[in-house]
Amino acid sequence: MLSRTQKENLKRLVPKVAISFYHFCRLILKRAYQQAYSFAYRGSGYYCPFCQYYHQHFLPDGMKAKVIEKYQVIGGGYRPNCLCPKCGSKDRERLLYQFLQRKTNLFSDTPKRVLHIAPEKNLKKVLQKQLQLNYLNADLAAGAADVQMDITQIAYPDNYFDVILCNHVLEHIPNDQKAMQELYRVLKPHGWAILQVPFAEKLAKTYEDFSITDPAERETHFGQFDHVRIYGQDYPQRLQNAGFNVSTYNAIDALGQDVVNKQLLIAEEKIFLGKKE
Ligand SMILES: [Zn+2]
Q: Which of 173, 239, 259, 270 is 20 to 30 A off residue 6, Cα-Cα?
């Protein structure tokens, strides 16, 4: 196996077209594997709300990292029952979809302007079909979404969006306060945002160290090569500092034990909802 640094060096040497072809082949193989697995493991135990199939098992996903175990980080790291074998939905994507359906007005008939950052694939498909939504999806990487966007500099006016979905993004951004301020700025009064991050209840204070820039070191300290921190109990306060009125929901309280069990959601995951009053 190549180390992270060796992989980065290899990337610089190999032409971009070869890398694209490699990723295309990987995707085809992954889809074929998922289809075969889906066929083999179709059953009545667990349910995916996106593809609406029942399965005996889901598939593992995420990386194993000592620091994730040490701080008991929720919503990150290796999960043995994460991916739907049919459509590839992740546990946190299913949680988000169920929360949006059952606990928000997103799917009501009222027209809304929605900004979805680093869009989850299956949720994006669902939202694109909602005719009452003026739906915009955006990503820092060019070509990864409809619009390229750096959320520390959002090129939209104040009070523009009714709803913002920004999940598992802020842990990648060094200046997360600026990103939070920008998200708050473009949100309309009475608008709301879902702001999920990997979260460590064990940490009283968010762990970050901007002197750590090497991808391998970041993986050791923050659990993933491109993460710059692990959020702790002060995460809601950081959102409040940017202006948000924050409500926190527990997955089981919000959706019920049955939904959490049936859809293999992360029972300990909290949902962070930020409102602009
Ligand atoms: Zn599915």
A: 173
Identify the domain boundary among 63, 83, 103.
83
Per-residue pLDDT of the chain (277 residues; tens, 9 = 90+): 566 666 666 667 777 788 788 888 888 887 777 677 666 677 778 999 999 999 988 999 988 889 998 999 998 888 998 999 889 999 999 999 999 999 999 999 999 999 999 999 999 999 999 999 999 999 999 989 999 999 999 999 999 999 999 999 999 999 999 999 999 999 999 999 999 999 999 999 999 999 999 999 999 999 999 999 999 999 999 999 999 999 999 999 999 999 999 999 999 999 999 999 9
170 lies in a domain?
yes
Distance 248 CA to ligand 1 centre (A): 27
Residue 210 structure tokens: 């901007």
Indicate the pTM of the whole model: 0.84
Does the residue 110 lie in any domain?
yes
Q: Is 119 helix (H, G, I), strand (E, B) or coil?
A: coil
Query: Domain range for residue 139?
Result: 91-275
CA-nearest of 195, 196, 206, 204 to 230 is 206
Alpha carbon of 189 to ligand 1 centroid (Å): 35
**Pair 126, 97: CB distance under 8 Å:** yes
